[in-house]
Specification:
The protein is α/β, with parallel strands linked by helices. About 45% of the residues lie in helices and about 10% in strands. The protein has a five-stranded parallel beta sheet with strand order 3-2-1-4-5, with helices on both faces. Strand 1, helix 1 and strand 2 form a beta-alpha-beta unit. The longest helix is centred in the middle third of the chain and has 15 residues.
Length: about 240
C-alpha cells in the first residue's frame, strides 16, 4: 500500500526542507499553501515554483485572506517590521518575549484546513516545518502544541472513539528540534536538488529579492548558513540576478 503525506508548504526554508524530506519518505506527496494576505507575497509564488520543481502529486493554494487579524506586521499593513543588525542583537532584543511577527492562531488554522484537504485524498499524515528551536518563542511551534492539535483533530473526527479501528491523523515535524544550521545540513543531504530548492525558497518577511537581511527570518536564516559553513544559495543567486 502506498504511503502519502500532506505538506504545509509556505515557500520558506523550513517548509521547503520538509518537502524534500517528504519526497524521500513517502510515495505520494501532496502540498498545501495558504494565501493569508501576508506581507511577503513573494512567498506564495515561490511555493508554487518549489512544488513544481520537486514534483508534488497535488498542490492546493488556499485563499484565506481576511480571516486572520492581529498586530503582526505580516498581516497588519500599519505595523512596522522589526529589524536587527545581527543574530546576537536580535536574540538580546527578543529575549523571552514572542517575536512581533507572530500571527495568533495561524498555525492551528492552517493545520485544520490541511487535515481537511488531506482526508479528502485519503491521506492521514500532515507534515509541517514548525521549529521550537527558533528564537521567536512562538507558542504554536512547540511539541506540546502539536500533540494537542493532533489529539484535537482525532477527537473531532471520532478517531479516538472505542471500536474505531481505522487510521488516525498524525502530525510530523521533522525540524522541531533542529537549529537552523541543522536544517541547512538536512536539506543539503538531498544533494543538488536540495541546493536548488533552497535557492528557490523565500524567507524575507519584507518580501524583498534579494532578501533584506534585517528581518527576523533573514537574520535567522543567515546565521544558520553561517554556522553550517555554506553559502546561502538564495543570496548567491539573487545577487547574481541583481548584478
Amino acid at each position: 500500500m502506498k504511503t502519502s503525506v500532506m505538506v504545509v508548504l509556505s515557500g520558506g526554508q523550513d517548509s521547503t526542507t520538509c518537502l524534500l524530506e517528504a519526497r524521500a519518505r513517502y510515495d505520494i506527496v501532496h502540498a498545501i499553501t495558504f494565501n493569508y494576505g501576508q506581507r511577503h507575497q513573494r512567498e506564495l509564488e515561490q511555493a508554487v515554483f518549489i512544488g513544481k520543481f520537486l514534483g508534488v502529486d497535488t498542490h492546493d493554494v488556499v485563499d484565506v485572506r481576511g480571516l486572520l487579524r492581529g498586530r503582526s506586521p505580516l498581516v497588519n499593513p500599519s505595523a512596522e517590521l522589526e529589524t536587527y543588525t545581527d543574530h546576537d542583537s536580535m536574540a538580546a532584543t527578543i529575549g523571552n518575549r514572542v517575536e512581533l511577527t507572530f500571527v495568533p492562531l495561524r498555525n492551528p488554522l492552517f493545520l485544520l484546513i490541511a487535515a481537511n484537504y488531506a482526508l479528502g485524498r485519503d491521506c492521514y499524515t500532515l507534515m509541517t516545518g514548525v521549529c521550537q528551536m527558533d528564537n521567536a518563542n512562538y507558542p504554536d511551534c512547540t511539541a506540546e502544541f502539536l500533540l494537542t492539535a493532533e489529539d484535537m483533530m482525532n477527537q473531532a473526527l471520532g478517531f479516538l472513539d472505542p471500536g474505531y479501528g481505522g487510521p488516525v491523523m498524525r502530525i510530523e515535524a521533522p525540524l522541531l528540534y533542529l537549529n537552523k544550521a541543522d536544517t541547512v545540513r538536512l536539506a543539503l543531504t538531498h544533494g543538488a536538488t536540495g541546493y536548488t530548492a533552497l535557492a528557490l525558497s523565500h524567507t524575507c518577511y519584507a518580501g524583498k529579492y534579494p532578501p533584506c537581511g534585517e528581518c527576523h527570518a533573514c537574520v535567522l536564516r543567515a546565521e544558520g548558513f553561517k554556522q553550517a559553513g555554506v553559502a546561502d544559495p538564495l543570496v548567491v543567486e539573487s545577487t547574481k540576478k541583481k548584478d
